[in-house]
Design goal:
Elements: H1 2-18, H2 34-42, E1 48-53, E2 58-64, H3 74-88, E3 95-100, H4 111-116, H5 120-138
Length: 139
């Protein structure tokens, strides 16, 4: 029974953590420097993340980079964070539709940008940035 209580307590703690908005998983204590990553991502333009907030409380988030099958450029990754912050503060929001432009959802990251990252550490930093952003998005 003690194991069951501990498991329930830890799940409750995890659930609470997952529902906290505005918190990041990684910080400088993990070797993650968000401002440096933002400067790196700014070097990879193309596409946009568009957000429409309807009066009925439903939002529509559109991945808009159809020339690359809506692949995420560095600038789009930065814009996604901006839209997530906007959604965190949207008190009238009830639901969100995520879609891709031109009948394609997303092919992932723009491989030209990924190949241009200087080091494996740069790649890890971008992964940490997106993990933080997508965790906030999920919350």
């Amino acid at each position: 029974m003690a194991k069951s209580l501990l498991k329930t307590a830890s799940l409750s703690g995890r659930t609470k953590l997952l529902h906290q908005t505005g918190l990041s998983l990684y910080s400088t204590s993990h070797g993650f420097y968000e401002e440096e990553v933002k400067k790196t991502l700014q070097q990879f333009p193309g596409g946009s993340i568009d957000l429409q907030k309807e009066d009925n409380g439903i939002g529509i988030l559109t991945l808009n980079n159809p020339s690359r099958m809506n692949a995420f450029s560095g600038v789009m990754m930065l814009q996604l964070l901006e839209k997530v912050i906007e959604l965190e503060n949207w008190t009238e929001g009830k639901g969100l539709i995520v879609r891709g432009a031109k009948n394609t959802f997303s092919s992932g990251s723009d491989l030209n940008a990924v190949k241009s990252l200087g080091t494996p550490e740069d790649g890890m930093a971008v992964c940490m940035f997106m993990q933080n952003t997508l965790t906030r998005f999920m919350r």
